[in-house]
Amino acid sequence: MSKTVRFREVDSIRGLAVLLMVMVHAAATWNPHNTTQNTSLAYLVAGLGGLAAPLFVTIFGWGLIKSRSNIKSNFIKATILLLLQLVVNLLSPHLFDPLTPGILSLFALLILMKPLMVQIANNNVRVTLFLISIVLIYAFSNSIYYVQGGNDWGARVTVGDSLTLISHLFFTGTYPLFPWITFAVVGAFLGSSITEGGKTLPRNNTTLLLIIIGISYCLVSLILASKAGSVWAHPTEGAYLNFFPANIGFMIGAMTGVLIFWLIIQELQILLFESCGRLSLTIYVLHFLPLTLLSNIEDERYWSVMEASLAVVLYTTAWLFFAFVWNRFQWLTIERLVRKLSSG
Question: What pTM did the predictor assign?
Answer without folding.
Answer: 0.94
